[in-house]
Design a protein that fits this description.
Elements (H helix, E strand, L loop, with lengths): L1 H6 L5 H10 L1 H12 L9 H15 L5 E7 L2 E7 L6 E7 L26 H16 L8 E7 L10 H7 L8 E8 L6 E4 L2 E4 L1 E10 L3 E2 L9 H12 L3 H4 L6 E10 L5 E2 L2 E10 L3 H20 L5 E8 L5 E3 L1 H13 L3 E4 L10 H6 L2 E7 L21 H13 L7
Helix pairs in contact: 2-12, 3-5, 4-5, 5-12, 7-9
């Protein structure tokens, strides 16, 4: 069967796109259903139940062997065509963000304080559509495909869904892995990625300062946590410019600073968080963190009764690095099929698909979902991707199901 499939011509662009177009209403309907029930990382029970129901409907009476695998990190579904064919992995994420939605859409979030503001509802629906088309044999896949609906991509304070699924064997036997993400500030029809280092390591530093505090009428008695916090921030500002070249890809900025509860009280506690996004080798990053720690302790020690009661470094997701050969394969495929496929500069966002690409070759792609009028970016309360673009996401997955890299690994 392998030789037979290899000898067949891939369906035309028009033929493949016709399926994405025919299922456009299904994609949008599914996306809206998921959009209304956003759940944070490791809480996605309603979301997984909705996805599983659609998987089971599509898999019913399929001519292929379809195995549904439940893991702590999410669900994966193996669509098996022939053991001798390559094994591909298509991944979507499913969790939401702790944001109060302000889109006023008729299908807005029904869960207060939670919103699909990063497009994971779109990702899940797009992949479900592609799975449905292939499982029903409307378009015959030229490879065995593992479809992944992963939990907790946004949750990088501890183990993410991607890291957990890697431990649970999600890439075992996989030849190439692919991820796809919407981008509401990029025009429809545009895809982008980057060979090599594409997205940053998303580390963070947290510290707690404690001191005596006291009444504002006695500023000479003890210490004020706000003064200490300000001195720390001023001392660390631009620190990366001292230790690294101006061209070094690193971002180090304060992101949380909290102290004080009343105007007549000198606070005795301050909480600080710094975001450290970088493409540094791990040993260089860790050395920089040690310098930051020393400076914070040294500044705090200059104040009476003050101390650093907590200092923690969270390594975050590793830098996402695509396989260059695979990047150029997908870029060429998209260009041949009438889409724009550009190379992006390094991005300082984080993405736990990096764990997959540490283990198997593949690439991660973003595609434009920009609205015609006013548009809002990801992670905002008014983020509203253009649903007209979703069929192109389905087209992306279908193209990959029909076209394989020439070099088998």
């Amino acid at each position: 069967m392998h030789a037979l499939i290899d000898s067949l011509e891939s369906p035309s662009r028009e033929a493949i796109f016709s399926f994405a177009l025919a299922f456009e209403e299904y994609t949008i309907k599914t996306r809206r259903a998921l959009h209304q029930i956003p759940e944070l990382g490791w809480e996605e029970e309603k979301t997984l139940a909705t996805i599983l129901k659609e998987i089971q409907k599509a898999a019913k009476n399929s001519i292929y062997t379809i195995n549904i695998v439940h893991k702590e990190g999410g669900i994966w579904v193996d669509l098996l065509v022939d053991p001798s064919l390559p094994h591909l992995l298509f991944r979507s994420d499913i969790d939401a963000l702790p944001i109060e939605e302000e889109t006023n859409l008729p299908f807005s979030s029904k869960h207060p304080g939670k919103m699909h503001a990063c497009g994971h509802d779109c990702h899940a629906a797009i992949l479900l559509t592609a799975f449905t088309i292939l499982a029903k044999n409307l378009l015959a896949p030229r490879a065995n495909i593992r479809f992944v609906w992963q939990r907790a991509e946004e949750y990088n304070l501890c183990r993410s869904g991607g890291e957990k699924l890697l431990e649970e064997g999600v890439v075992e036997g996989i030849d190439h892995a692919y991820g796809l993400h919407i981008n509401p500030t990029t025009s429809i029809g545009t895809f982008f990625s980057k060979p090599g280092r594409m997205m940053a390591n998303s580390s963070q530093i947290n510290c707690t300062i404690e001191c005596s505090g006291g009444h504002v009428m006695y500023p000479d008695r003890g210490s004020n946590a706000i003064y200490i916090m300000i001195d720390i921030q001023n001392s660390l500002r631009g620190l990366e410019g001292i230790y690294f070249k101006p061209t070094e890809p690193i971002v180090f900025v304060p992101s949380i600073a909290q102290a004080g509860v009343a105007s007549n009280v000198r606070p005795n506690r301050a909480e600080l968080t710094f975001a450290l996004r970088n493409f540094l080798p791990e040993e260089e990053r860790d050395h920089f963190v040690s310098i930051i720690k020393e400076k914070i302790h040294a500044i705090t020690a200059t104040y009476p009764t003050a101390l650093v009661s907590r200092f923690s470094f969270i390594p975050g997701y590793p830098s996402l690095t695509t396989d260059p050969e695979n990047f150029y394969f997908v870029q060429d495929l998209l260009l041949k099929n009438g889409l724009v496929a550009s190379e992006t500069p390094p991005l300082f966002c984080g993405e736990d698909f990096a764990y997959y690409l540490q283990k198997v070759p593949g690439s991660f792609w973003c595609f434009g979902t920009k609205q015609e009028g006013e548009t809002y970016d990801l992670h905002t309360s008014k983020c509203n991707p253009n649903e007209k673009a979703l069929k192109l996401g389905v087209f992306f997955w279908l193209l990959l199901s029909q076209n394989l890299p020439s070099k088998r690994l």
